[in-house]
Specification:
Blueprint lengths: L5 E2 L3 E6 L3 E6 L10 H15 L6 E6 L4 E3 L4 H4 L4 H20 L4 E5 L2 E3 L1 H8 L2 E5 L3 E3 L13 H9 L1 H10 L3 E2 H6 L5 E3 L4 H13 L3 H14 L5 H14 L4 H11 L11
Parallel strand pairs: 3-4, 4-6, 5-7, 6-8, 7-9, 8-11
Antiparallel strand pairs: 1-2, 2-3, 9-10
Helix pairs in contact: 1-3, 3-4, 3-10, 4-5, 5-6
Bound molecules: coenzyme A.
Length: about 270
């Protein structure tokens, strides 16, 4: 399989020497939010990238100035049933598992808003660099749901359990500098330096033995206990889906779409 630069409806893929693939999500009308179509395109592209030997390093980023990914698409999610909620989370998991487990490094270059599913897709990459304009966050509980694309599992691996709880329970936004301080990102660059610097780092990696790097990635993942990954992600997908029969999910997502504050019920 050969690796060429290409564009699909929501993805721009560029090849740089030696063996670096830059994959950009591009859905400007919704700040690159992830609907089913985008997730399916992404899954197909990642499968091809995983199976293309010429690609040695993947850089994953968002197109445009403002957003990496502004989360899962709330307008699409609003009316989902429990079963559809589970399936949507499972599709997100297929994408995040490809990023996490493919036998080549995946680097997130976060260029702007990375909220909800945006933070979760970045967390599925091997590591994250951010522009000084990046903003992270897991705002799902403010919409009546929980992180459903692996955030309940992966955030604590980056920032530790108490801080992951604090971020998920408050839903607060984390700017680039704080993201660096808490270990969420490896380094912060001025926004016009983000891609050149991340490409330089990818070039360093791509000159090393791809076999040795792949083996190191596999062992680092195994030793960080990804062996229980499927069971844990399945538990998350079902917990996420079950929230789609609650008042609070309907209220939270309707409030976002109607541009008003939600009014939640007590514990149900
Ligand atoms: N799902 C669907 N549409 C989204 C979206 C999402 N996650 N995030 C942004 N959009 C849409 C907005 O509805 C808006 O569409 P419109 O122009 O048709 O009204 C457009 O993208 C631009 O967003 P807007 O909110 O006007 O931009 P902003 O600069 O005022 O705010 C954000 C940017 C990212 C802070 C804000 O869009 C936001 O909070 N998004 C949702 C983030 C979120 O909760 N994600 C987790 C989902 S589980």
């Amino acid at each position: 399989m050969t690796a060429d630069s290409s564009t699909t409806r929501h993805l721009i893929q560029e090849m740089l020497d030696p063996g670096i693939c830059v994959l950009k999500i591009s859905r400007p009308e919704a700040l690159n939010a992830l609907n089913t179509d985008v997730l399916i395109e992404l899954k197909d592209a990642l499968l091809k990238i995983a199976n293309t030997p010429e690609i040695r390093v993947l850089i994953f980023t968002g197109n445009g100035e403002k957003a990496f990914i502004a989360g899962a698409d709330i307008t699409e999610m609003k009316g989902k049933t429990v079963e559809e909620g589970v399936q949507f989370a499972q599709l997100g998991h297929e994408v995040t598992k490809l990023l996490e487990l493919m036998p080549k490094p995946t680097i997130a270059a976060v260029n702007g808003y990375a909220l909800g599913g945006g933070t979760e897709l970045a967390l599925a990459c091997d590591f994250i660099y951010a522009s000084d304009k990046a903003v992270f966050g897991q705002p799902e509980v403010g919409l009546g749901v929980i992180p459903g694309f692996g955030g309940t599992l992966r955030l604590s691996k980056f920032v530790g359990l108490p801080r992951a709880k604090e971020l998920i329970f408050t839903g607060r936004r984390v700017k680039a500098e704080e993201a660096f301080q808490i270990g969420l990102v490896c380094q912060v660059f001025e926004s016009n330096q983000l891609m050149p610097r991340v490409i330089e780092i990818a070039q360093t990696i791509s000159k090393h033995s791809a076999t040795a790097v792949a083996k190191a990635k596999h062992l680092l993942n195994e030793f960080a206990e990804t062996s229980g990954l499927n069971v844990k992600l399945d538990a998350e997908a079902h917990a996420f889906g079950r929230l789609f029969e609650t008042h609070d999910q309907r209220e939270g997502m309707s409030a976002f779409v109607e541009k008003r504050k939600p009014v939640f019920h007590g514990l149900s």
